[in-house]
Amino acid sequence: MHDRVHLENSYWAVTLWPQWGATIGQLIHVPSQHALIRGPLTQQDLDREPYLFGMPLLFPAGRIADGQCHYGTEHWQWPRNDTAGPNHLHGFLWNKPFDIQMKSETQCVLTPATDTLSLLTHYMHQPLAVRVEYALTQQFLKMRASFTNLGRREIPFGFGYHLNICLATGWQLSLPPGRAWIMGPDLMPVRLARPGELPHAEWLHSQWNPRDLVCDMCYTVNSPEHHVVGFEDADQHQKIWLHAFAPFGHWVLYRPHKTADFISVEPYTWVHNAPHLPYPPKLTGWRVLKPGEKVETLLVWESPI
């Protein structure tokens, strides 16, 4: 399929695809040999469902109504590539080439290739510096990404990952305490759900079986500074934790049907359609990057010792 880079230690084996958005294409938990991430068998699989394998990087993340965003006198028009409506979906990085800046057995730093940066500048109207890093340190896999506005005007900022969790293992999941959003027919959030309004969302912060869920929903955590998604395989007495840090504070859960062999668990810095929602930025994650401003994000996978 694509050129690959391998990182490995006693806890994690990671396969990166630099030419396909610098994504993690495979993640193996070494002690248990569990494959956490759904990987494609063929290039045709990847072409058919490009967001639904690996951990694609999403910038701007999520759905944006009509592909449009306005701020002050600035207007952005992005491709309407969402089959659920005439909306934009998931940005411009997920399948574009990255260059390797540094590589060792346990660390890799990547930046967008020249053509990828040109595409970003075209759609965002300002140049950006983007840096992606994957690093193994003992029982931790750290995923860092940074974005710096190198231009003279502000730009909207919303970033995320499309983590496609393989369900070949009998994982039970748990989300941090938070609230689900009521979703409209266009799969856009309308408002935060009231207590009891979405019964299936009430137990997401306790252990639940992802095979029981069919969904395309948004979820906002109560305390985004440091929150944890838990994975537990009771049969093998195995636990894995995914730590997320602000500005991540929103999650999308997606599972298309009852027989799907995966569930997407997607950390975002903003909720779907944040530029258009009539709610405070504290609820939606809406923000702009000022000239010269830099945002750094961090996810950490942990294998308990």
From TrEMBL:
CDD domains: Aldose_epim (cd01081). GO terms for biological process: carbohydrate metabolic process. One of its GO terms (molecular function) is isomerase activity. It comes from the Bacteria. It holds the Pfam family Aldose_epim. InterPro entries: Aldose_1/G6P_1-epimerase, Gal_mutarotase_sf_dom, GH-type_carb-bd. This is Aldose 1-epimerase.
